[in-house]
Write a structure and sequence with these properties.
The chain has seven helices and eight strands. The protein is an alpha/beta fold and 297 residues long. It has an eight-stranded mixed beta sheet with strand order 1-2-4-3-5-6-7-8, with helices on both faces. Helix 1 packs across helix 7 and helix 2 crosses helix 3.
Length: 297
């Protein structure tokens, strides 16, 4: 166990939203029933699953519970939703499609660049879809009011979180963890390591065209006007200094140039001595950021 369960055991409810199984966790009696709810999507990484995020759910609730007790005043309630990304968990259709590039022919997935972008863009679309429909499943009689939606994701889920930040105006607060907002910066490095060209067949022209239209890195992220989809958003970027899979250097140029404007927040923590992992310290920082900018308001 990464985290002790210092907080009351979260209650898990399971909803099937048009074929997507969604686990929703909350702490009963954490707040009064008339207090607004902040609903967080917590996205797993490659080869992970929704249920494997349970320890991180507990870790976040531990930290929020501790802060709630110290705070003493009114603060919003927190619900955390997890679901399997496409081709993961209960949605698995082809395990090989989640593999990367390998020298070994049996392990090698030539479509790695296509598959990964398809999954993370699909997950971002699923988040928007669930924002539309999940409130009706959770509170069919309007028992509670959802005041805001948040997105926190690790690795593949973190890449998807960056896409959500670009495309979904209802997500104002997010924490991308060990992730990269510039798909080509990340994947061209991987391709180079395997002596592969950033072109067909590994990077078909149609895929490159899509990336040039849809990637967070091609949005006007440095602009001071409404053309910048990140303006006014509150973002905590968490990376590991020793991460070899998704090195901080792949994301650094984008993150340092990212303009969230005077109404936004941008925090960056690159944790020393940490590789490609959602560390306990990162869990605490994510919970602290959510508490500070979403709950204790």
């Amino acid at each position: 166990m990464l985290f002790s369960k210092k907080a009351p055991e979260p209650k898990r409810e399971v909803f099937v939203v048009a074929g997507i199984t969604v686990n929703v966790y909350h702490q009963p009696k954490a707040t009064k029933a008339d207090v607004p709810v902040a609903l967080m999507f917590l996205l797993h990484g490659r080869n992970g699953s929704a249920l494997k995020m349970g320890e991180f759910v507990n870790g976040i609730f531990d930290e929020v519970h501790a802060r709630r007790r110290k705070h003493g005043g009114e603060a919003q309630d927190l619900y955390i939703a997890t679901f399997d990304q496409r081709n993961h968990g209960k949605r698995m259709a082809d395990k090989h499609a989640n593999q990367g590039w390998f020298d070994d022919a049996e392990q090698n997935n030539e479509r790695h660049a296509i598959d990964m972008y398809a999954i993370q863009t699909g997950t971002a679309a699923d988040v928007s879809y669930l924002i539309d429909f999940l409130p009706s499943y959770l509170f069919p009689n309007e028992e509670r009011t959802i005041s805001q939606f948040l997105c926190v994701g690790k690795s593949l889920g973190g890449h998807a979180t960056w896409i959500v930040l670009r495309n979904e105006p209802r997500i104002k607060i997010a924490v991308p963890i060990i992730a990269c907002p510039d798909y080509l910066a990340l994947m061209s490095r991987r391709a180079k390591n395997h002596k592969l060209p950033v072109g067909p067949p590994c990077f078909p022209k149609s895929l490159l065209d899509l990336i040039q239209r849809a990637d967070p890195s091609v949005a006007p992220y440095t602009a001071d006007d409404a053309s910048n989809p990140f303006l006014g958003k509150k973002i905590l970027v968490l990376s590991g200094q020793e991460d070899k899979k998704v090195p901080w250097t792949s994301a650094k140029e984008f993150v340092e140039g990212l303009n969230v404007g005077p109404g936004g927040v941008k925090e960056v923590i690159v944790e020393p001595g940490v590789g490609h992992e959602f560390s306990p310290a990162m869990v605490k920082e994510a919970a602290r950021f959510v508490w500070q900018h979403a709950l204790a308001v």
